[in-house]
Amino acid sequence: MSEPTPPTASSTLEYQRPLPQWVPSPPKPRYWLHVLLLLATCFTTLVMGARMEYNFQHGLPALFFNDETSGFLGFFPGKLALV
Question: pTM of the predicted model, to two decimals?
Answer without folding.
Answer: 0.52
